[in-house]
Amino acid sequence: MNALKSHLLRLAPQIVVLIAVVLLISLAFPDFLTLQMQNGRIYGSLIDVLNRGAPVALLAIGMTIVIATRGIDLSVGAVMAICGAVAAASITSGHSLVYTLALALAVGMLCGLWNGILVAVLDIQPIIATLVLMVAGRGIAQLITEGAILTFNHPGLIFIGSGSFLGLPMPVVIWLAFGVAITLLVRRTALGMLVEALGINRRASTLSGVSTGVLLIAAYILSGLCAAIAGVIAAADIKGADANNAGLWLELDAILAVVVGGNSLLGGRFSIAASLLGAMIIQAINTGILLSGFPPEFNLIIKAAIIVLILVVQSPRVRDLSAWFGRSGSREAAVKQEAK
Amino acid sequence: MQGNDDIILSATGIEKVFPGAKALNNVNFQLRRGEVHALLGENGAGKSTLVKCITGAYRRDGGKLVLDGADIDPRDTFEAQRLGIGTVYQEVNLLPNLTVAENLFLGRQPRRFGLVDAAEMNRRAKALLSGYALDIDVRAELSSCSVAVQQVVAIARAVDLSGKVLILDEPTASLDAHEVEMLFAIVRRLKSQGLGVIFITHFLEQVYAICDRITVLRNGQLVGTRDAAALPRRELIAMMLGRELGEEIKQAGNAQAAEGAVRYRFRGYGRKGHIEPFDLEVRKGEVVGIAGLLGSGRTETAEILFGAQKADSGTAEVDGKSVEISSPRTAIRHRFGFCPEDRKTDGIIGDLSVRENIVLALQARRGWARPIPRAEQDRLADRYITALDIRTSDREKPIRLLSGGNQQKAILARWLATNPEFLILDEPTRGIDVGAHAEIIRLIESLCEQGMSLIVISSELDELVAYSRRVIVLRDRAHVSELVGEEVTTSHIVEAIAVADKHEAGQ
Predict the structure, then answer these.
(1) Inter-chain CB proximity A201 and B338 less than 8 Å
(2) How close, in Å, is residue B7 to chain A by CA atoms?
(3) Each residue's pLDDT tens digit, A46-90
(4) SS3 B96
(5) pLDDT in tens, B27-53
(6) Scanning A54, B61, B178, B489, which has its CA 20 to 30 A from the CA of B69?
(7) How far is B366 from chain A (nearest CA, A)?
(8) pLDDT at position A79, please?
């Protein structure tokens, strides 16, 4: 019971922000909250947010773990493009759906393995190590699609992008299920704690017998797997692999989702649920701005302004400040902390 | 005693408290005009804390600073610099991509028509450096100069800015013998100009070569200030490492316990550049102490035994069976444990709770797929919090909020939870309150009674003597002598280190 309470406390800021964003949009567009059942499928703007946010949500799951290890993965957007291209190429050359999916996911994990080896074995800074694949990945994807948009019309593959299950669009089902599965994996085993220990103090963790190298590589492989799933969804959604634009800049949205989720870029304590909420906050803002009919050139600026606001509210300094206004006693503690 | 007007800098009753530990306790320090004054002590003795209190890098919590007859209270290093206290660190604190002249005059370049007058600046830089017998191209980038020259440039800048007190913090650590001589010539010249120089180093020969007086700190306390000429090397080492000579107590009682079978045998174990090959045997229920000065290879010995550094020569045996210890993980599989010297960087996982820190090593050994059930974790944590008297409000508190002594006990608990049979403790009592020293020592003794084999590295010789049946003395990254049973006394250890040290000086 206690654990549940502390969990909700951890997620409270993200839940509050998400509700606030949704309420704000629905004030301007009352239709935003409307849900309809049609042909056994739920329609509405809220479902649209969940659906459109699927790629970023999936990327955010892997990114959360990588950031918890004190790393970062800039290559996920490019890996999406590679895996989308691999899936399209495989299905158009007549392979079965199962084979195609397995191949695409395996390629994503291979990309993660590459990143992980650069970071864990060669000790290259994560931002540089993953930049390599971020730049090269799009080129690889273009080689696979031979520069064109590789279209397909295999109904099974398309179903992943636009089908539905239990009334929900497939992408929503996939990211929800994957998020729950990974959360259970890290929290029901010791992985979560070991990853946090590694992110906070790698040397001390190694000296305590934690296989920090293996864990690091596994984190990047997971990130690659997430990118692969996101890439397949993105390709299935448009029934084609677009090597130039699939997943473009999404690595930044994923990092943003993790940060809006209140996870520290310095590694350590993490919450996948909070990152997923962060991804939904970002998507809700995106959808809201689109609905508002502002000229599109304003969209990015408005989005940036809202995100700055969220980050300011979350900043430890602001928190200290509000605590100081609350009771001046806590200020001393904060100052002492700083002096350390 | 000389007249009071000789004193250029006087610090009295300096106190500095860090969360959980008293870093400086009523320390007095007086620097005369025209003297070179060595500030000595082991790691964590409080040397750098004292210097930082003097230069304003830390705010002191108590005590008085008098510079040239006036009370001062520098808020930061810039203010101290303006007042006349300049500091040069081991890592040169200048900008390598600027020229020598720019570095000398950074922030106060001569100007003409609002622009930097480069010609004037270079002329002045040349004049300034000629005072240090240094004839170099002042327009060259600083990074193109040798470390020694950079060091001199840093000194020239500090003296030019400050001019009353110069603090040299390990300035010779990366210099060769010839460069050290050049540096000393400069220090002697500054001394003759009436500057007071504080010299921090761990090379004792250099102390005797240049210093007039010596102040020794230990555990944040002043041990004493002596004239260098009247302080034999042996006595100096005793001041740094242990109690005053003649006060030593040898506790009997641990000699008989150590007659068990040899469980751990290392032969020709070593690693190039870290520690010369050594032989070491440890019996069941035995405490082997390791003594030596800073940089003598103490920590390197511990790391190589635990696999944190791989040995490149020699063999290891556990219970007569040959084993290969290539990583901490394999060491842990053979039931080794290691409490490192630097708790902050090598020991604690700061943001994790006391509970998580305690179960970490056990969890790592079980593997990720077999999590320790939460109830079991709670039980383990509570058991060790009680057994070792770890003072924390509850087991979920982040460990970084605990005091040094309690962090140390939590890390000990991390290893005890794995039921180790061979425990290596590197400076287990460093940087923790004196009260906690006794608790840790009691713990070491009781572990030994339970049949555990321990290696304890300590610069607290009287503590080492209290619990060790054998003490191995290290010098120059090699094991140089071993004291057994009755021979284990602080004076014997000091002698062994000093003899070794003299031998080195004679080479």
Answers:
(1) no
(2) 32
(3) 899 999 999 999 999 999 999 999 999 999 999 999 999 999 999
(4) coil
(5) 999 999 889 999 988 767 788 889 888
(6) B61
(7) 10
(8) 96
pLDDT of residue B506: 41
Give me the architecture of the B256-335+420-506 domain, per CATH. 3-Layer(aba) Sandwich (3.40)
pLDDT of A338 over the 60 cut = no
Each residue of A200-213: b (16+ CB within 10 Å) or e? bbbebbbbbbbbbb
Distance set, CA A305 to CA A54, A283, A293, B134 (Å): 23, 15, 17, 56
**Same-domain check for residues A56 and A162:** yes
Q: Measured between alpha carbons, how far is B195 from B159 in angstroms, rounded to an integer?
A: 9
pLDDT digits (tens, 9 = 90+) for B338-369: 999 888 889 999 899 999 999 999 999 999 99
- Position B344 scores a pLDDT of 82
Question: Which residues, in sequence order, are CB contacts of B253 under 8 Å at separation 6+?
Answer: none
Measured in angstroms, the CA of B362 and the nearest CA of chain A are apart by: 9
Domain count for chain A: 2
- Tell me how many degrees the CA angle A8-A13-A14 measures, rounded to the nearest 5: 90
What mean pLDDT do residues B397-405 have?
Answer: 84
Q: How far apart, in whole angstroms, are the C-alpha atoms of residue B489 and residue B299?
A: 22
In B, which residues are within 8 Å of A340 by CB distance? 18-19
Q: In chain A, whose CA is at the least distance from the CA of B350? A: A200
Cβ–Cβ pairs < 8 A, chains A and B: 78
Binary contact (B363, A194; C-beta < 8 A): yes
Range of the domain at A333: 299-340
Task: Find, in chain A, the residue whose alpha carbon is nearest to that of B20.
Answer: A340
pLDDT band at B274 (very low <50, low <70, confident <90, very high): confident
Does the CB of B347 have a partner CB in chain A at under 8 Å? yes
* Residue A33 and residue A19 in contact, taking contact as beta carbons nearer than 8 Å: no
- B75 interfacial to chain A (CB closer than 8 Å): no
Contact A207 B351 (CB under 8 A): no
Q: Where are the domains of chain B?
A: 4-97+141-231, 256-335+420-506, 354-419
Reported pTM: 0.76
Which residues does A contribute to its contact with B (CB < 8 Å)?
A: 188-191, 193-194, 196-197, 200-201, 203-211, 268-269, 336, 340
Strands B21-32 and B7-18: antiparallel
Q: What pLDDT does residue A332 have?
A: 44
**Count of C-beta atoms within a 10 Å radius of residue B469:** 22
* Mean pLDDT across chain B: 84
The answer on A214 and A310 residing in a single domain is: no
Of B486, B491, B483, the closest CA to residue B253 belongs to B486
Chain A CB contacts of B351 below 8 Å: 196, 200, 268-269
B371/A190 Cβ within 8 A: yes
The pLDDT assigned to A319 comes to 66
Residues in chain A with CB shorter than 8 Å from the CB of B371 are 188-190
